[in-house]
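Researcher: Here's the sequence for the chain we discussed earlier.
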Amino acid sequence: MAESRGCPARLVLIGSAASQAMSPALWNPVLAELGGGWTYEAWDVPAGADLAPVRDRLLEPDIVAANVTMPHKHWAAATADDATSPVRLSGACNLLVRRDGRLAGHNTDVTAVKVLLADGYQRHAVLLGAGGAARAALVAIKGTVGKVSIADRDVRAAEELLELARGFGTEAEAVPWQDAQELASTASLIINATPVGKKTTDGPVWGGGSLAPGAVLYDYVYARHVTASVERARELGARCIDGWDHLREQAVAMVPLLRLDERARDLLRQSLAALREKH
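Model: Thanks. This is the structure I predict for it:
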């Protein structure tokens, strides 16, 4: 595994609802199989909390790394001592690796989107959401998309993401939420980077209308049920990439960053398949 000095042994997940996430259940069977005594645990850190003590804790010698989820991905990017290009471009970080008294920031969400979309060209993407997950998606499709339409309930967040897209040289527009839902009917790619779908009562994120032939739905949400977005997209014959797929690929992308045995890749896929079957 990674460095032995200081006996690092703990991987953690930081988020406002980290204890509700599947990551510990995904990782702990893998770490047990690999040996070495590593464990994965969740730290619930509410929005607006003082994160300075969290950063201090991450620098203690028993910490290996931290996954970071909503709403702290921007903080993670800012607090990293060193950051990869995807983190610098997106302003979002979902993995902080402690090494030599420093925190290295990575964004395996970007890697996952690239892998799952296979860098295929998209003539028009509708991006629903403007947080860290949306930023990762925008970076991942940079250079392989003709146009991006961005919508978020927070108009300011959508405008910031629009500025980021244009900074990449991507043709982009910020549109009202309802307009984006309507545009989904002609788009080649619809990305749900919002929590819509977490609840069984949530409808399809784009409203459930028709989709273009050959359209792809990328739904970041993973839940104990099939989201309404995925269910409806399947009915319409669209290709669906769901949150379980994303969870798997972002975890697999962590293997070399944590200097884990390559067996971890297959073990993660097996662990995810078992979790998915259970839920």
